[in-house]
């Protein structure tokens, strides 16, 4: 991918150059020998698409040692199945962290009165209405509409979240992106506590 | 089925298997077929009766295989008296052939996919279905009691059929299996009235929504072991509590992460006779006013006087760790591999664990934590250090310092699996000298092609020392920057090595040649991303025949080369596996080759080509 960027930078000169070969055939960095590196790159890229359960955030293969230094250093590369940790173990450890690159951002959700917690992937949703709808479906309850003035007045439940400072905040006050980056866990409170928020 | 504290039985299995047993199968069968069904002479009959009685006591698989080779009479009697059938590769022999030879089997141990399938190197639906085995066994083995499956695909219907077909069925152990869900579990437990053991270990369980725990039959249960820590769905706790209360024989209970510490408490006080406990979440549910924090968990642990094996701790809050102090002194196995704790949190625990023999942990404890382990755990036989952060090129919480400490403190070590970001030859050499009893040495330096950070040298000398000094070594996994020299050492000194795992290593075909020519006991060879090609494989072909399997992915094998091998070795099944959308390329993406009496299998998916 980085190599393609390189090529584009050169194209203004090379495109107008008179040569005998086919276009693109003399670009040394792009010549790929039938080596195992090439094989590895293609196969891993394509195979990654066909794998139903992929390891965390696999992007492309790293071929650092054997390619030209003209290619800018690749960003964090992950190889399929390396390091050799079972996907089960990887996913278990991931769900313990709230912020994980590329593999979803799972936060715990507790509901007052429910016997156990659930986990929800914040990255899957793009806005508050989506998130609230998902929560409503997950716990079979109604949260109601948010208003800046009165919070979630008019319903039995209100969604709150714990932010990075450890404070419990009402969901919906800050822009979505800010919420995503600061939310550590969710708690849906009910009853008088919920209604009380509207009176503040 | 023999179980030690850890789940991985592979080394125990291998010790019992004679390499050529199933090849001899055919020739013996020919001899056997010559014998008529008519009664033998009197002396022979007496001898056979005596032999039958004697052979009932023979449990070792390897010994039994040897016995079966003596003569046709012994072959026949051995087949009659073998009650535990082990099949290391489910495609090496057909269910029909196995049930025809062994007619009185009570326990089946079956392994399917190769290990690299765990790391997404094999597309799903490759095979290893339990179903044909199940169907083949229903009539010949009405008294079947135990089934142990590893890396097999099992469906919900299979589970139901299993319970229905065998009225005396007692033990089911599924390790790294998939294809079934809570529905299947529900049918299984409800129909299996004599169930003693249900162990689901690192298997993927589909959520069908069924409350399977409630499906255990009412009345006193025979349950001795219930392991479901891998089930990633909530369970009906009240039903579980009632089940535990009516299972007086229950010794092993491993809960999943949907059981809170408060619930754990309630279970423990019902079952103080437990020997193996998986603690589940090990933190309270975060609902205000539940009062979990007031319970004295320490007394619950103290009441479990027989507890020797602890695991779980899935979302541990370190404040609760002191609760396990009362049992530490008796613990022989401790699994902290899901517990994100640091050295300071580990020390008060580990300093009490004098009897510990098996310890699994995360690298969050750092070298300092490993030093604490080394200081106390003099009886340690098995250590596994897993990475919290499974990436390359990040800072290493554990390193050669930890390994060195362990080698000095835990000199009885037999098995080690160590993930790290940096390692020196010096530390590996030290371990080879300090721990002569090593049977399993698996070092994973997570950065590919990484040399010794102190000397800049490849890691050849370190691994060389391991094969040279550890005379009992049977399993080896290598990593880091390795040249052909490392493989020369392995071929020269690794005479007992049965399982070898290689990744991103070697310079040329010579590397593979050394191994194939030198390691006479090699059974399982798995290689990925290494520059070994057709010539190397061809040169070692004669040895491939004695191996259970060979796996090579992203190496330099060509299709033509594999084709030649398939022609030359008719008793080997040569599978070329490619990704679904990749075209037929010159280079073979994955070669999986194994010996088999049956020829090409019929259940291969379309991206598998059998040459």
UniProtKB/TrEMBL annotation, chain A:
SUPFAM superfamilies: CAD & PB1 domains. PROSITE patterns: PB1. Residues 104-196 form the PB1 domain. Residues 1-76 are annotated as: Disordered. Signal peptide: none annotated. InterPro entries: AUX/IAA_dom, AUX_IAA, PB1-like. Keywords: Auxin signaling pathway, Nucleus, Repressor, Transcription, Transcription regulation. Pfam families: AUX_IAA. One of its GO terms (cellular component) is nucleus. GO terms for biological process: auxin-activated signaling pathway; regulation of DNA-templated transcription. The keyword Transmembrane helix does not apply. It comes from the Eukaryota. It is found in: Nucleus. Coiled coil: none annotated. Its main location: nucleus. Residues 42-51 have a biased composition (Basic and acidic residues). Homodimers and heterodimers. Belongs to the Aux/IAA family. Aux/IAA proteins are short-lived transcriptional factors that function as repressors of early auxin response genes at low auxin concentrations. This is Auxin-responsive protein. It comes from Durio zibethinus. The lineage of its organism: Eukaryota, Viridiplantae, Streptophyta, Embryophyta, Tracheophyta. The gene is LOC111283440.
TrEMBL record, chain B:
It is found in: Nucleus. Its main location: nucleus. Residues 44-83 form the COI1 F-box domain. One of its GO terms (cellular component) is nucleus. InterPro entries: COI1_F-box, Leu-rich_rpt_Cys-con_subtyp, LRR_dom_sf, Transp_inhibit. Residues 1-24 are annotated as: Disordered. The gene is LOC111315549. Keywords: Auxin signaling pathway, Nucleus, Ubl conjugation pathway. It comes from Durio zibethinus (Durian). This is Transport inhibitor response 1-like protein. Residues 104-149 form the Transport inhibitor response domain. Pfam families: F-box_5 (PF18511), Transp_inhibit (PF18791). PANTHER family: F-BOX/TPR REPEAT PROTEIN POF3 (PTHR16134), TRANSPORT INHIBITOR RESPONSE 1-LIKE PROTEIN (PTHR16134:SF36). Pathway: Protein modification; protein ubiquitination. One of its GO terms (biological process) is auxin-activated signaling pathway.
